[in-house]
Amino acid sequence: MNRFASYLRRHHIALLALFVALGGTSYAAVALPANSVGVKQIKKSAVNRAKLRANAVDSTRVRDGSLHAQDFASGQLPQGPAGPAGPTGPTGPAGAIASGSDSNYPATKIDLTGGAKTVLSTTVSPTSTSRIVATASVNVAAKPGDAVSCYLELGSGGNFTRISSGAYFDTAPGQADVAFPVVGAAADRPAGTYTVRVQCDAIGGTSSYAAGDLVVVATG
Fold it and tell me: Is the domain of 117 the same as that of 17?
């Protein structure tokens, strides 16, 4: 007993310091002052979902504009109302408002002597003011020295006007059938039904029409 008392007298300062240190740590662990724990005191990734009380994080604790679509589970974002229907696409090729075509190979060739003859014809019915463009390919049976002129006409109500210059050729020696293009256009025609035709005329010799194709497109 005397020995223990003697030990305490010699080491009382060190034992007191140890007691205070141990007591202070224990106190700090169980009785932190209010608002004393901040960002610096929390270890990175220490707070996870298991540490949060249910419904503890609400809209008042989320910074405005900080969430993105990928932050939400599939199906969680509400779908907006359907938008208005888009415009109906135009009909016909290449954005045409209307189109027409004709292609033939008559069993009996059309004699082109004695004045212009209609060899190809089709109708087109644009629904608004449109530019009408026509392209044709004409195949003519001829003999050397023959000459033929073909052109396009646009008509409505029986009245026709030319919409192309004449496509003209002279048959060279040794030629027989000859194919050549005819192209024309008419701008700013109001809505309605129009007839486009190819007229051919043998202006020298005895040529005849053999075959051909006509395509007409009305574009807004």
Answer: no
Query: What's the helix, strand, coil split of the chain in %, to 5?
Result: 20, 40, 40
- Write the pLDDT tens digit of every residue in 59-114: 777 777 677 777 677 767 777 777 776 555 445 555 568 999 999 988 888 999 99
* Total tally of structural domains belonging to the chain: 2
Q: What gap in Å lies between CA 63 and CA 60, rounded to an integer? A: 8
Q: Write out the DSSP string of 133-202.
A: EEEEEEEEE--TT-EEEEEEEEEETTEEEE-SPPEEEEPPTT--EEEEEEEEEEEEEPSS-EEEEEEEEE
Nearest to 119 by CA among 149, 157, 99: 149
Residue 14 tokens read as 């060190």
Spatial distance between the Cα atoms of 202 and 113, rounded to a whole number of angstroms: 5
- 167 within a domain of the structure (yes/no): yes
d(C-alpha 58, C-alpha 15), whole Å: 51
Shared-domain flag, residues 103 and 25: no
Q: What is the pLDDT of residues 185-218, one digit of tens each?
A: 998 999 999 999 999 998 888 888 999 999 999 9
Judge if pTM exceeds 0.85. Answer: no
